[in-house]
Amino acid sequence: MADDREVWKRISRGDAEAFDGFYRANAPRLQSFLRQVTGNRQAAEDLAQEAFLQIWTRPNGFDPDRGKLRTYLFGVGRKRAAEWWRKQRPSEPAPEDKAEASQTELHLMIEEALVKVSTEQRALLWLREVEGQSYDELAAILEIPVGTVRSRLFAAREALRKIWRTPRRNHGGQDELR
Amino acid sequence: MEDRMNCDEAAEFVSSLCDGGTIPRAMAEHIASCPLCQARLHEYIELGMELRQAASLEVPTEAKDRVWSSPSRGVRFWWRKGWETTRIPKLGFALLLVGITVLTSGLTAIGVRAHERGNVVVLNIASKAEHATPCPLSFEDKNYAECTGSFGTHSGALNYRIKLLSRKGDRIELGVQMKFAQGGNSPGTFKAMMDGPEKKLWFEPGKTLQIDAEGLGPVAVTGEWFDHMPYFARMDVEHNLEPGPNELRMISPILLRGDRVLFDANGGSASAGQPKPAFWVYVPGDGIYILSLSSMPGSVQGHAEDNRVSFEIAGQTYKFVTGAPITREEQVWILHSPNAKSPGGIFGSGSLDGILQLLQIKK
Q1: Distance of CA A68 to CAs A113, B322, B356, Å?
Q2: CB–CB of A165 and B43 under 8 A?
Q3: What is the ipTM of this complex?
Q4: Cα-based angle B221, B216, B204 (whole degrees, multiple of 5)
Q5: A32, A138, B81, B299: most buried, per Cβ within 10 A?
Q6: Pick from B50, B61, B71: which is nearest to A110 by CB?
Q7: What's the distance, Cα to Cα, between the start and end of chain B in Å?
C-alpha cells in the first residue's frame, strides 16, 4: 500500500483513482465517527462527503511531515461536524436517529450510554477506542495539547463508566466504585 | 482514607495505562496492589471492548460509489473547465483571457516593494506580448501556493503550473512546468503538463524572467509584490463588473439550500453569452442544478438581483450567491435533476441546449 506522502502527491495532482482509493478506505469509518458526533446518520453521511470533497477540491492543508493523512481527514470531518452543530438552532435538539431493528441489545445499550456523554467526550472515546488514534493524533484532530487529551480521555471514560454501570446495577451488577 | 485519596490521584493514570502509557512508579505500585483501581482498569478495558464490538455493527463495510471528477482549484482551473467541459467556443475563451490583460496594467499602481513586507506576488505570464494572464502567489495563504492554468495564443494553448518554493531577500524561487499544445488543448494535455518535469528558477519581481516553452518560444514572466491579495487576482472577472446583455456570469458561486452550503466552486468561475446561456453545478448525492435565462420543462422560476439568484423547489428556499453581478435579467429558470450525473467536473457553463445534451437530460 502506498504511503501517505505518495498518496497525497497523487491527490494533489488531481489523480481521481488515488483519491477514490483513499475515499473507499476511509469513508465508512469517518462516516461512523461523524454519526457518533452528530447523532444523525444522514448528517454524518453529508458531512463525510463534504470533508472528502474539501480535501479533493482544496488539497492544501495536509503536511505529510506532521501526521497521517487519515488523521488529517478526521480533523477535517470533526471541524465540519462542529460547524454543523453551530448551525443547529439552540431551541431544537439535534435530530437523533431511531434505533434500527437489526441492532443488538448490547449495541443499543452502548449507544444509549454514549448519547448521554458530551459530544466532545463521545468523539474522543470513539477516536481512541474504535479508531485507535494515538494521543498525538487525537491532539492533532481535536486541536488540543497532548496533556489535555490525557485528562479529557480520563474524564470521558469516567463519564461513560458511570452511565454504563447504572443500568447494569439494575440488572444485578456490583457497585464496586463510587 | 489514604487509599481512597490514592485512588483519586491514580484514576487518571489508570486511564493512561489503558492506552499503553507509562505512569509514575508510585502510581503503578498503588494500582498493582489496589483492588478498586484494578476494577476501574478492568471496567475501562471492558468499555473499550464493548465500544469496538458495537462499532463493528455500526461501521458500514463499503463506501458509496462517488464520482471524483477533476477538481476546480481556484481561478486556475477555470480554464481547464473552459476548454474541457463547457461549450463556449475556444475563441470566446481566448477573448476573455485577453480581457484579463487589461487588468494587469493596474498592477504597478498598488504594488509594494518587497522590503515593505509584501507577502503576495502577482506574476504576469505573457507570450510574445500577445496574451497574458495573472498568476497570484502568496507565502501566507496556502490556497495560493501555486497557480495553474492555460491560455490561448495565435497557434495553440500554453499550459502552465508555477509553484512558489522559497524566498531570499527580494528574490523568489519558482517551480515551473509548461507545455504548449499546438492547435489547442486536447483531453490529457493538462495532465501531461502536470506530470512533466519541473524547472527551478529564481525570479526578482520588477524584472523579467524569460522561459522557453517548447514549440512556442520565449514566455515572459513579470511580477510585482503586494501586501495583500488584490481583488482582480482573486476574482476571475473582467474589468467591467456589469454582465453584458444576454450574459450569465457565475463568479465564484456557491449554492445554498436554506442555510446549508450545497455547492462551493472554491473560487472557480464560469460564464456564457450565447443566445441561451446556462450554468450547471453538480452536487454529489443531489444531482444537477441548471440555471438558465430560458425556461426549461420542469424548471422553476427564480429571481436574480445583483450577485444573487433566489428560488424555491419543493417548498425549500435556494440561493446562488456569487462574487459579482450574475445577469441583467430579473427572471431566471432553474431545473433540478436529482438523478443526473456529472459529465466530468463539478460545474460548467455554455448554451442551454448543449448543456442538456451533455448532461443527457431530456428536453
Answers
A1: 30, 35, 42
A2: yes
A3: 0.79
A4: 15
A5: A138
A6: B50
A7: 82
